[in-house]
Amino acid sequence: MNTYKDLDIYKISFSLFLKTHPFSLKLPNYELYELGSQLRRSSNSVNTNIVEGYGRRSYKNDFIKFLVYSEASGLETLSHLEKIVALYPQLSLEAEELAKDYELLGGKIHSFTEYVRTSWRS
């Protein structure tokens, strides 16, 4: 692996961010800077923490810490999507699809974190 762009979790999280951002703009105008902004920021954080952790990969514990942050941001994103499903039924199908993808990504981030914890050489 030569760069963070080689990580599957990076590729998936970036792709999900590119889907989540325009989805958030479908919320009513009064939600664009409330729930919409929170959704955009947490989705971005999933991806950004992977990148920042990779940048600190020479320090195994730092790498793990940022992967944990990334997984936590994924859970935050799931929470925002759950709220959208409950509040905006017209967006529920798309939000549920995104949520499924974030759940799968969370599992992959968790597995990768365990790999780094047990097998990564700093």
UniProtKB/TrEMBL annotation:
<dbReference type="InterPro" id="IPR036583">
    <property type="entry name" value="23S_rRNA_IVS_sf"/>
</dbReference>
<protein>
    <submittedName>
        <fullName>Four helix bundle protein</fullName>
    </submittedName>
</protein>
<dbReference type="Pfam" id="PF05635">
    <property type="entry name" value="23S_rRNA_IVP"/>
</dbReference>
<dbReference type="InterPro" id="IPR012657">
    <property type="entry name" value="23S_rRNA-intervening_sequence"/>
</dbReference>
